């Protein structure tokens, strides 16, 4: 599956999802950091876990109406933790991020994925790499990724 992120000049960026000859477009509200679905890409591709993008790759529509599924719910909670960390400067310790992940999962009655300090470091590095590339793009330009 090919993902194309297009940097917008207004309040939204876009993600194009290409599976075979079909293309879906998702508007991504700007959030100062990389788009939410690009955080999904970093988590899912680094940890080889099936979240929102994996479900889309496997045939579900790229909508925000997906039903609950333990692994993808665990991925979503982890994406939220990484997103929150990035919003606050990306300086949380791996231990703090793992603790927040546990709290977030408990609050949403979601079984947590087995995640280690090394996993946190690997995803954080991937997010930093993507962020450098994304911030360098002018509006209207795109970034292609494969999942």
Give a description of the structure.
It is a single chain. By secondary structure, the protein is of the alpha+beta class. The protein has one domain. The protein is 48% helix and 18% strand. Strands 3-2-1-4 form a four-stranded antiparallel beta sheet, with helices on one face. A hairpin with a 5-residue loop joins strand 1 and strand 2. The chain starts with a strand and ends with a strand. 29% of the residues are buried. The mean pLDDT is 94.
* Rg on CA atoms, Å: 15 Å
| N-C termini distance | 5 Å
Low-confidence residue ranges: none
Report the sheet with the most strands, covering strand number, pairing sense and barrel closure: 4 strands, antiparallel
Q: What's the pLDDT, averaged over the residues?
A: 94
Strand proportion, as a percent range, falls in 15-25%
Portion of residues within helices: 40-55%
How many helices?
A: 5
Shape: globular
Strand order of the largest sheet: 3-2-1-4
What structural class results from the helix and strand content? alpha+beta
The total beta strand count reads: 4
* Total tally of structural domains: 1
Give helix and strand order, one letter per element, not per position.
EEEHHHHHE
